Structures are given as C-alpha cells and as structure tokens.
Amino acid sequence: MFSFVAEELYKICIMVVRRRTELNVSRWITLVAITLIILMIVIIVISSYQKQYQVFSGKFESSFIESIRESNVICPQLGKELVSAKDKSTIIITRGGIINSCKVDTMIDIESNVVQALYDIRDPQRWNLKRLAGILQQKFEYERMPFTLVLTDSTGKRLDYYGVVNGENLLDDSYSVPMGFLDGHRLTVYYTFPWKYFFILEWRYMIMVWGGIFLLGSCIFMLFRIIRQNKKRMENLELFVQALNHDLKSPINDLKMKLYLIQKESVAPFSPQQQELYTLAQTKTGKLLDSIDKLLQDSIDYKGLHVEMKELEISTFIQQLTEDWQRSVTGEKEIKLQVSMQMENTLIRADAYHLSRAIWNLLENAWKYSDDRVQIDITCRRIGRYVEISVKDNGRGIDKSELKNVFKRNYRIVKGENRKVKGYGLGLSYVMMIARAHGGRVWVESDWGKGCNFVIRIKA
Question: Which residues cross the membrane (predicted)?
C-alpha cells in the first residue's frame, strides 16, 4: 500500500514539474517567435521603403532638371541674345551690350547646353524659385511634396531660397545643378520621401503587412490567454499536491507514533517475529515520510513556488505547529522546546503552508542532528518591515567551512555521527526558496559542536 501511494504521488509531482517546464519553455518560444516575426516585418517594410526611395529619387531629379529647362525657356529677357557657334563647342551670350564667349562640353548635347545658357539671359522679374517650384510640383501626383530650392553663387553664398519648409531646415537628400555659364550660380534641391507617400504608393502591400500584424496580434492574444489558463491550472495542481502531501503525512505520522506506543506500552516483550514486523513497519513509514518530502520539494523550484500571502497570527501559528511536530516525533529522544514571542504586533502576512514547512524542516533537522537530549528555542521578533523567526538547537552544529554550502540543493554534511542520518540534502534548499518567495532570506550561525541557530527573515 505504501509503495502504491508513493508511486502515485511521484507521478503527480513529476507531472507538475514537467508541465511547469513545458509552460516556461512555451513562453520563451512564443516571445522569441513574436520578436522574430516583428523584426521580419520591420526589415521587409524598411527594405521596400528604400527601394521606393531610390525610384522616387531618380524620378524627382529628372523632373527637377525638366522644370529648370521649362523655366529657362519661358523666361528669357528681351534685348539679350544667345547664339551657338558652328562648331557647337562655343556659345555666344550677349548681355548688357557685352558679348561673352563660353566654351561648353561637347559630350553634352547642344540642346542641353543652350537650355543651361538661357539662365544667363533670364528675366529676373519672371524667373524665380517660386515659379520653378510650381512647375516642379505639377509633375507629381501628390500635392505638397516637401522640398526646398536654394540658389547660391560661385562662393556658395545663398542668394535665394524657396520651399515648403523653412530654408534653414534642409531635408534628407540633395541634388545640385549648375545654372548658366557666366555667373557660376548653382541651384540645389533638398528633398525627402515621406513615409505617408510610401504608404499611399504601396497601399496594397501595406494592407497585407497590417493584416499580418493583426493576425500576429490575435495569435499573441490567444497564446497569452492559453498561457494564463495553464498557469492557473498549474497553481491549482500545485495546491493539490501540497494538500495531498499534508493529508498523507498526517496519518502516517500518527501511525508511526501509534507503532511506537504499542511497543512501549506492551505488557509483554515482543516475540522475534513481532519485533521484526514492528521494525519493518517503522522503517517503511519513515521511508515513506522521507519520500513524500523529497517528491514535494522536487516539484517546486524558487521561480515556480506559488505563495498565497494571507494575514497570519504568528503566536497561534507557531504554537499549533510545534504541538503538531512534537506529536509526530517518537519518544526515542527527550525534547525540550521553548517559544519566545518578542513582538507586540503578532499579525503578519505569509503563506501559512510553506512557512510551516520551512519551520518544520528546521525542527526536524534540530531533532535529527542532536543527541538524546534535544533543546530547541524558537524566537520571533519584528525588525523594521521584517519578521525574524529563529530556531536554535543544542545539536552537533556545522563546521564554519561548511556554512556557505548548507543551503545548496543535494548538499549534505557527512561528518561524525551525521553519517548515520539519512536524507537527500533538499530540506534547507527548500527553506531558502520559501524565504526568498516571501521577499526575505535565511542564514545560519553555527560551529562544530556548538549547535545551530537558523534565522528566517521574511517581509511582514
């Protein structure tokens, strides 16, 4: 029967550990997948924007040159002349009665050179950046495309500017062309490709992207909803394991005590067969209690420990706990236990179950690692926002070199008489988990042969 109960409890605890692990792994996989998908969407959108920007830049710069040509052609000033020489390498410009001969690049078609030279005979009243901007703006489907025109002389000094934005607030990209041959002027256009125009141009593509984002958001919502539901189920299952642990340990402890009383109060000595059965029953119940403790502690780690903080009257809590514990241990040792309540306000906030398990573990250790006469002193005191619960014993103590390791999982001190004590090295690591889950810590003050003083400090 004992083996069956232990096996069933083991299956439940393993299920708790496995489901909690799967839940944590699922969370991380979900977060990584969501991050990667969002990154892919951002990269695709930016890549598409850059391609559209390149197309836009080529179109905009071509339209800019065409607009300059149109403006130069329609705005010549009367009384000024422009003639191309027969060899097409020279343009003769007459301005203010002065004839200027300008060498041109023969690699460029004569029409382009002539259009450029028309700037030198422009009518300043008619040729201006506002007119040029109007011509340029008409070449685009969308109105109010942001750009700025800046006219400079041969030294780079600004002569004039016009733009949708202030001339001092120049935009991302620029394109510059020479104006005429005589004055050395240059006209620069500063422009950008706003995201809103990208969205207008790529609206079909963006519908797909936003649709993907909507689907992704729906998946995220559903995943987190499932995770939240699973978390709730895990909390309920953990509470069930804790309750099952308590329900199993109480009758087994009672059984162990009754076995001891039967042997102690027997009117006649046990026969060899009865003694063998008694010893076997005591051994089995002891092993089952150890197995229940080990399985419960294996099913809990610090991150997964679920604590339910409630108001607790510490004086009554400690009194009930010590009475239950004293009833659970056999009379093989003489036990003297004292409780000192050094605090006026005895109301604290804590998880009654886990805190009781932590103190129970310390009481068990005090009993196990002491000689025949066990002296245990429990002291409760309030220090600022914290409450300290100390469990001091007169046991064999712990060597100072071992103190840094006692709270490590599976660590046991096998020195002297301690070798005879069976255990898994899990109890103190479990106590540390509980203290941390309560926003506190645990430490020990001891030396070999001088007993131990374990102190649990929790937020209250």
Answer: 28-49, 203-224
